[in-house]
Amino acid sequence: MSTERQAWRKNYGLHYSFPMTAWFTLFFLAPIVIIVIYSFLKRGLYGGVAIPWEFSLEAFRSIVRPSFLAITWRTFVISIVATVITIFIAIPCGYFMAKSKHQTLLLLLIIVPFWTNFLIRVFAWMNILGNNGFINELLLRFNLISEYIPFLYNQKAVTLVLVYMYLPYAILPLFATIDKFDFSLLEAARDLGANKLVSIVKILLPNIKSGIFTAVLFTFIPVFGAYAVPQLVGGKDSYMLGNVIADQILKSRNWPLASAIAVVLTLITTIGVLVMMNMQKKETTRTTADTGLVTDNGVSSGKGMSPGNGTLQGKAGAV
After folding, report:
1. Are 294 and 315 in contact (CB under 8 A)?
2. How many CB atoms lie under 10 A from the CB of residue 164?
3. What are phi and psi of 152, to 5 degrees?
4. What mean pLDDT comes out for the span 12-29?
5. Residue 11's pLDDT band (boundaries 50, 70, 90)?
6. pLDDT per residue over 87-137, tens digit each?
7. Each residue of 178-217: pLDDT tens digit?
8. What does each C-alpha distance from 217 to 21, 127, 171, 273 come to in angstroms?
9. The pLDDT of residue 64
10. Residue 55 β-bridge partners
11. Domain residues of the chain, as ranges?
12. What CATH number should be reported for the domain whose range is 40-291?
């Protein structure tokens, strides 16, 4: 390749990346910078921020109040419970899809809910769980209950609807990872005496950790900042940080406090992503080391492989 052609490609590389750079700057970086700036400003007399701007830490002092700490803890617990339940449901679903001969149809069924508006699906669950909803009417018709059961407006309803809403986000990455898994390893484990549960825990799960990490991130982050689901199907015990941010903006017009809460949410999710990425990197490094490397003398140095083993030495010599 000539020097002129290389220089042409090098010069136009910046032009190719400009649209993506501009997009992330305008719709990702700029809003975050504005939120961070507003979190350190003083609230205006009639809401918003004071003009001219005045530096203040009052918004962050308000966050450490017991009431806000209780809401933060509640949000964290609901997010963890919903994420764990989602992953436990998504793993067998992804496994079944990977083993099925009708993957296209199953993928279509997973994607179909995305064709429906988010709020319509929430209202559908309200009709199912409501006092006059499908479940209560069915139980009453068969005389299984004497009065309505309050399925709605509690943490259990919020958790259930959140699991339903974000289950596809967990199934898709898990399916993509499990589909690449060598299922003959499970058969080998069964031949060596392991039962189904042991073979899945010892063989399958360690080999699909990347998909599990991705599914956790795709589930926990949106659940942690959820607003519509707690607002519509939750009660007083289901008030989450997303609802606090909306109330501070729309009702109290306390933009600095809302921005400070959003900054804390962003920091928590960013730290979570970094921790998960670090764990995944360490796991990848450890797995690569455990697979074994061939040394200069042709003997495998993998975990559990001894140079004194004649069979392994023969295979290594053959290599």
Report:
1. no
2. 18
3. -90, 170
4. 75
5. low
6. 999 999 999 999 888 998 999 998 888 888 889 999 999 999 988 889 999
7. 999 888 888 888 888 888 888 888 899 888 988 998 899 8
8. 24, 30, 12, 7
9. 86
10. 41
11. 1-36, 40-291
12. 1.10.3720.10
The CA-atom distances, in angstroms, between 277 and each of 94, 213, 214, 236, 292 are 22, 8, 9, 35, 23
From residue 232, give the alpha-carbon distance in Å to each of 78, 85, 149, 219, 228: 16, 21, 18, 20, 6
Average pLDDT estimate for 244-251: 90
Above pLDDT 70, what percent of the chain? 85
Cis, bond preceding 52 (omega within 30 deg of 0): yes
Tokens of residue 24, six digits: 């992330």
Rounded CA separation 104/218 (Å): 22
Rounded CA separation 61/217 (Å): 29
Residue 44 phi, psi dihedral angles, 5° rounding: -75, 165
62: tokens are: 């308000």
